[in-house]
Design brief:
It is built from 9 helices and 6 strands, in the order H-E-H-E-H-E-H-E-H-E-H-E-H-H-H. The chain is an alpha/beta fold. Helix 2 runs parallel beside helix 3 and helix 2 crosses helix 7.
């Protein structure tokens, strides 16, 4: 079971294509019953245009780029509000930059929230944004937040950093933009917030794709069956 890059390497080494299986890697997926669009009341209240960020508060997650983009977004979607879940070294710098940019009232830091309590936030958010930036020693791998979000039917806007494009299909389960580009990020956010038809299309595709590809229970069972088959062939 390999990813795209590993498959190419194995083919170059002479491994027969029929012996290579392309399966999910880096994660089993998510609990699609927990991370689902199922309504769970009206809380948390994130308004009609809530933008959700979940992750460690570090520069490589693109938070400063997201704040810059939010300035442009607010001009087109005045009630857009960014909700930030997570903790990290930028905890004190984020409010400072938001104030400097004039968007302090539109940025809400919610602190750390344990994994099994995240689904209501994904459901209530209009979109999830994960503007990761590739650094010298860090490139986004699986992007679990993206998977959790689309399992809840909430469209994702992310970047082409690392392996993200292998897990999020641009224009189908989310929108991918270039790294470190606040203008492109803002345009994608505005587009999804304002275009209800596009939002509905991506939301529906996202949930269906997550059920097919990112259901942890199904993926574990699939791997078990594959291993049994391979072992029986030896």
């Amino acid at each position: 079971a390999v990813n795209r890059g590993a498959e190419e390497n194995m083919l170059n080494l002479g491994v027969p294509k029929k012996k290579i299986s392309r399966l999910l890697y880096g994660t089993w997926g998510v609990d699609t019953e927990l991370f689902s669009p199922t309504p769970s009341g009206t809380k948390p209240d994130m308004g009609s245009n809530g933008i959700l960020f979940v992750g460690r508060l570090i520069k490589e997650k693109g938070l400063f780029i997201l704040l810059e983009a939010l300035v442009t977004v607010k001009k087109e979607v005045p009630d857009a509000t960014l909700f930030i879940i997570g903790y990290g070294p930028l905890r004190t710098e984020i409010p400072q930059l938001a104030a400097k940019l004039g968007i302090a009232d539109a940025v809400k830091l919610l602190g750390e929230i344990q994994n099994d309590l995240l689904p209501p936030y994904f459901r209530r958010a209009r979109i999830t944004v994960a503007p990761s930036i590739t650094a010298t020693r860090l490139a986004e791998q699986v992007g679990m937040v993206n998977i959790q979000s689309i399992a809840c039917g909430t469209p994702v806007i992310s970047t082409t950093s690392g392996s993200i494009p292998e897990f999020i299909i641009d224009g189908q389960t989310g929108i991918l933009v270039p790294e470190n580009d606040p203008r492109a990020l803002a345009e994608a956010i505005i587009r999804l917030l304002r275009d209800q038809n596009l939002w509905q299309k991506i939301s529906s595709n996202a949930r269906s794709y997550a059920l097919k590809h990112y259901d942890a229970r199904k993926n574990i069972k699939r791997i078990e069956e594959l291993l049994k088959t391979r072992l029986s062939e030896r």
